[in-house]
Each structure stands twice: as structure tokens, then as C-alpha cells.
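Quick check before the chapter quiz. The format below is the same one you will see on the exam, so make sure you can read both the input and the output lines.
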Amino acid sequence: MAEHTFTFDTAGDLTLVVGTELEGVEQQTFLICSKDLSRSSPVFKVMLYGPFKEAQNSTSACPWTVGLPEDNPVAFKTFLHIMHSQFEEVPDVLGLKDIRDLLELSNKYDMVHLLRPWAKTWFQPHVTTQQVID
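Here is the expected output.
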């Protein structure tokens, strides 16, 4: 587990461990409110409160931790900033790879709607003018 936990909600009940050291991207740990995540994503709602292994076991005395080793921790952190209304932490400029990572993650968890306010700003630097050839 990563040494540092990013706290998005001091009363959070869920720790997410995102990414894997094997991918060359540093794994990150986030303390969040499971309800915030489930409100933002129907996929997480089913995952956390349905019949899946990630759901909290009410008989467990252990903290609730969910691993997401296949996800990009940098992109996931951006989503968490958006979900928690920390808009000053959302980047104004993103490279194409970063945009792709966010789009893949948003599609996987059905959270595309969260990106709408930033999409035009992020894509604008990458738009090129093309001449129409007759």
C-alpha cells in the first residue's frame, strides 16, 4: 500500500488503493465517502452496495478497503477532486494521454457526465485547423 493517503473526506468510510507499482505509475491511496462515490457512478453503486466482493461486510471489524489495481491513479484523483467539489485542484490543461486516461476511466465507471464542464477546455489546445481540399 502507498505510504501516503490522500484524504478527500475526513469522515470517509472507504479507502481506495488505486493503481499498481508494476505499471510504472505510483500506487495511490484515497480516503473517501463511499456514498459520494456511489452517487457519482452507478457502477460503483452496484460494486460497493451489491453482491460483489468489494461490498462492505457488515460483520467485518476491518476498515473498508477496495483495490483498483487496473486503474490510473492520476486520472482517478482528478475524478475524486471533481466529485468532492475541489475544482481548484482540477487541471486546466491536460495532454492527450491524460485526456485518454480520463475518458477510459469515465467510460469504465459510467462517469462521463463529470467531465463535461472541462472537456472543451482540455481539448482546445489539441484542435488543429485543417484546410478543406476541393
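If your answer matched, good. The first strand starts at residue 5 and ends at 7.
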